[in-house]
Each structure stands twice: as C-alpha cells, then as structure tokens.
Amino acid sequence: MPYKVIVPKGSAPPLAPYSPGTKAGNVVYVSGTLALDSNGTLVGKGDVKAQTRHILDTIKAVLEAAGGSLKDVTFNQIFLSDMGTFARTRRPDTAFAPIWCGQNF
Fold first, then answer.
1. What does the DSSP assignment read for 7-31?
2. What is the tens place of the pLDDT at every residue in 64-102?
3. Taking a C-beta distance cutoff of 8 angstroms, is the pair 35, 81 a contact?
4. CA torsion angle for 38, 69, 83, 91 (degrees, to 10)?
5. In order of start, what are the domains of the chain with their CATH numbers?
6. pLDDT at 73
7. What digits encode the pLDDT tens for the residues 35-51?
8. What is the spatial distance between Cα 25 and Cα 82, in angstroms, rounded to a whole number?
9. Global pTM?
C-alpha cells in the first residue's frame, strides 16, 4: 500500500526513526508529539498549558501538511506525567475545539 511521509516545515528533530505524520490513502496518522521546538528544545518548561498549546499547534501543522485540518480528527489520546494537570490541558484554546470531542466551548 502506498503511503506518504509527512514532515511539516519547522518540525522538531526526531528522537527516534519516525516521522511526525504519515498519510495512507485518505487517512493521516500523527505520531506521538512532545512539546519540542524546531531545535529540539522543550517549550514551556513547567507550564502544561503552554506545552499543550505547542503540541496542538504541531498536530495542526502535520494535518495541514497532509491536506487536512483539525475538523478531520476522529480520535485523539493524551498522556500526562501528572494527572493533577489534566484540567489545564482540557481547554488550551477554542481554536482547537474540533479535537476536544464532546467538550463545551
């Protein structure tokens, strides 16, 4: 099956041999994303809201580079190092409402 590797401009350098995204047919798979800038430096150290915003911007860039948008997301999953930060990750910005399915914005 043919596929296309998606690497948006300004992507963080990979920590392992993977790409930020892959498109197979009409489906885009976004790799696990960390709050790293294009130099591989942590964004928003100690600020989970800033890190969440950066990660969502990164996901948006992958989707757009593949010809999609946040409105095309059908599933997302997050992993936190501290569940006490969960509430601060839920509403980073209403611009990301399409991927927070079922939330009241």
1. --TTPPPPSSS--SEEEETTEEEEP
2. 999 999 888 888 887 777 887 777 666 555 555 555 554
3. no
4. 110
5. 4-99 (3.30.1330.40)
6. 86
7. 999 999 999 998 888 88
8. 36
9. 0.81
